[in-house]
Design a protein that fits this description.
The protein is an alpha+beta fold. It is elongated. It has 1 helix and 8 strands. The longest helix has 30 residues, at about 1-30. The relative contact order is 0.22. It has one helix spanning about 1-30; strands at about 35-40, 45-50, 55-60, 65, 70-75, 80-85, 90-100, 105. It is about 30% helix and about 35% strand. Strands 3-2-1-5 form a 4-stranded antiparallel beta sheet, with helices on one face. It starts with a helix and ends with a strand.
Length: about 110
């Protein structure tokens, strides 16, 4: 049962982060403002911060993220390509940000 719960937590966290990044990309385009994304691993959250936009996504302490640190979403919604890895200690899930347009692809 614990293995199933950890897998579900991994999948849900990845979806939550994916949704937050895509939402921030849309908002940056509509409001014409760049948004900074910062990962604070000790506090276990992602911070999205723009002039008018602010959002905090809390990450369960059982989930570790690799490569989400400090990137920008441009005022046109573009994000430099990167892969964010989510791990629950046993399983991994990857989220790819591709093609400079902020679209997140599950892997």
């Amino acid at each position: 049962m614990e293995s199933y719960e950890n897998q579900l937590l991994l999948v849900n966290t990845e979806k939550q982060v994916k949704t937050a990044i895509e939402q921030a990309a849309r908002i940056s385009t509509v409001q014409h403002e760049s948004i900074s994304v910062m990962y604070l691993p000790d506090s276990s959250y992602l911070q999205f911060k723009g002039r008018k936009y602010s959002k905090k996504v809390i990450i369960n302490k059982k989930i570790k993220l690799t490569n989400p640190t400090n990137f920008q979403i441009s005022s046109k919604g573009a994000v430099a390509p990167r892969t964010i890895t989510f791990s629950n200690g046993k399983d991994n899930k990857k989220l790819k940000l591709q093609m400079m347009w902020g679209r997140a692809i599950d892997e």
